[in-house]
Amino acid sequence: MSEQEGAPSEDRRKYEFQKVIEDLKDYTGSGTQLVTIYIPPDKQISDVVAHVTQEHSEASNIKSKQTRTNVQDALKSIKDRLRYYDTFPPENGLVVFSGAVDTGGGRTEMVTEVLESPPQEIQSFRYHCDDEFLTEPLEEMLGDKGLYGLIVLDRREANVGWLKGKRIEAVKSASSLVPGKQRKGGQSAQRFARLRLEAIDNFYQEVAGMADDLFVPKRHELDGILVGGPSPTKDEFLDGDYLHHELQDHVLGKFDVSYTDESGLKELVDRAQDTLAEADLMDDKSDMEEFFQELNGGDLATYGFEPTRKNLVMGSVETLLISEDLRKDVVTYECPNGHEERELVSQRADTPEHTCSECGEDAEVDERDDAIDHLMEIAEQRGTDTHFISTDFEKGEQLLTAFGGIAGLLRYSTGV
Length: 416
What we know:
Number of domains: 3
Order of helices and strands: HEHHEEEHEEEHEHHEHHHEHEEEEEHEHE
Number of helices: 13
CATH topology of the largest domain: Translation, Eukaryotic Peptide Chain Release Factor Subunit 1, Chain A
Distance between the termini: 25 Å
CATH architecture of the largest domain: 2-Layer Sandwich
Strand content: 25-35%
Strand order of the largest sheet: 7-6-5-8-9
Structural class: alpha+beta
Largest sheet: 5 strands, mixed
Helix content: 25-40%
CATH superfamily of the largest domain: eRF1 domain 1
Radius of gyration: 28 Å
Number of strands: 17
């Protein structure tokens, strides 16, 4: 297994973040009393504590006694939590949520949640106080997929960089020595044209060298390369096979852009939105194509909660497929005769009564867990990969609506 023993997988960590975010989005406060703080990894904890202390002092000017008390209580809770950290936050930073949330009937409850090491690095310190927690930056991180190489060039300049999720990062740039089309002095037209073509070729080689240096070490993580520029520059560059041969197959497309400086990288990403959306779903579509092939003409597919769980326990599932929109709990019942059965229920639904299907006795609830956590824990123990499947395409939607949001690709046929 790639994960360290006992350490949650990346998919598991992202799902746990998603659950916390969904809970936080449900909270509301009476007035601007819910505090959110985003702390980048290079921000000293002592500076954050000083900022919170200052906000606590300024909160004494809030006219509403209830709001004033709730804000100050939230800030005190945040200071107490920050004491557990040393000089700097953990990797990627820290997000703290605290405030008195409405629980109905005019009552409130103090909630404090700390999220360590979010999926992407927090870029800047942010203090926010409102009647809702600020979750949008975290939601954007969770929605971000992919690592893409970016190249924009014309015959004058070029820029090479990354698209990491939604963040564009310019890394390398170059300016060319290509002369203009008008020759000067006494050079013959043929000699001038030859020198100009040599300069263009040298510049394309320089741009390719920058791209190779940046992208080749990451070629196994790379989800694609986008190339932008005016015609015929980008066409000459790609058709001339200047890029490293291992990068050629990663080129997703070429796009017309007006600029080739850093702003051209953003323009390139904007022009390639449809291509990027298709690329983000490529792995999901591949998984579902394989699932339907096995379902219709093979014997290495399973679906539904109980059959998939049984196969997981047996260790026969190679890849666990879970709909991103699945929100279910699994209730485990046990009857007086020792029979154990499970049932999926909506997460916000009450636990239903249950009669044992084997002996007809009334069964008691043994435990109630999040269904995805339940399945992923078994998957991690058995060395099974978990893939979350988007509902943004037809077969992904079918996984949720027709197959209960849970399926698997098997290592071997089990007949379950």
